[in-house]
């Protein structure tokens, strides 16, 4: 999991820092929040989701690291994938799936 703060939206309330100081901090100059971890450790996932849900301006975005896995899985279900073409060809040869044995 990764987390990002849209610093253009951040209203500098500090709520995320109060919720999870291990993942967020505020810039001294202007109070805008920033993320201080490259990747969120598994143990902090619930707290990061809580911080994101509590941000009053929805400036915190959680990015689940398994998004790439979803894309690969989606490709397998894409119309006219190789798998779908093989299935369609099999159906044309043997409609209904009956294999001809009695
Ligand atoms: S909770 Fe939202 S608005 Fe407040 S400091 Fe964090 S990112 Fe900024």
From TrEMBL:
Top-rank taxon, per record: Bacteria
InterPro entries noted in UniProt: 3Fe4S_ferredoxin, Fe-S_cluster_ET
Function summary: Ferredoxins are iron-sulfur proteins that transfer electrons in a wide variety of metabolic reactions.
Region (Disordered): 68-102
Pfam families on file: Fer4_15
Official protein name in the record: Ferredoxin
Taxonomic source organism: Rhizobium brockwellii
Keywords, in A-Z order: Electron transport, Iron, Iron-sulfur, Metal-binding, Transport
Top-level taxonomy: Bacteria, Pseudomonadati, Pseudomonadota, Alphaproteobacteria, Hyphomicrobiales
């Amino acid at each position: 999991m990764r987390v990002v703060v849209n610093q253009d939206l951040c209203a500098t309330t500090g709520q995320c820092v109060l919720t999870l100081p291990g993942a967020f901090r505020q810039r001294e100059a202007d109070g805008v929040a920033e993320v201080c971890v490259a990747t969120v450790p598994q143990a902090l996932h619930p707290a990061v989701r809580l911080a994101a849900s509590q941000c009053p301006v929805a400036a915190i975005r959680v990015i689940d690291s398994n998004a790439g896995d979803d894309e690969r899985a989606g490709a397998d279900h894409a119309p006219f994938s190789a798998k779908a073409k093989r299935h369609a060809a099999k159906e044309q040869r043997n409609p209904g799936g009956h294999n001809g044995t009695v």
